Amino acid sequence: MTKSYTYRTIIEPDGKFFHGYVPALSGCHTFGKTIAETKRHLKDAIEVYIESLIQEKKIIPSDASFESFETVSFPYPHKVYA
Fold it and tell me: Which of 53, 61, 62, 76 is surrounded by the fewest CB atoms within 10 Å?
């Protein structure tokens, strides 16, 4: 029997590299030189993370999060108060 898990991942630029992490899996982070490499590393990191939870007989978290983007607009040029 096979069980599939789906998790939201986030990849952000971090200097010359990319930082990837899984918000639903605390401590599940990785890096890569490219976005594609970071995605591969994230998949590996998730697999190892879940395998360790299974071995330790711990609960595997589900990802019930959702993502939303908000856009705010300001007239340009705008005054800057410092």
Answer: 76
What's the pTM value of the predicted model, to 2 decimals?
Answer: 0.80
Residue 38: inside a domain: yes
Q: What CATH number should be reported for the domain holding residue 42?
A: 3.30.160.250
Which residues constitute the domain of residue 44? 10-55
Residue with tokens 């999060």, as numbered in its chain: 65
Give 19-74 pLDDT, tens digit per residue. 999 999 999 999 999 999 999 999 999 999 999 999 999 999 999 888 888 888 87
Q: What is the DSSP letter of 13?
A: E
The whole-angstrom separation of Cα 45 and Cα 31 is 10
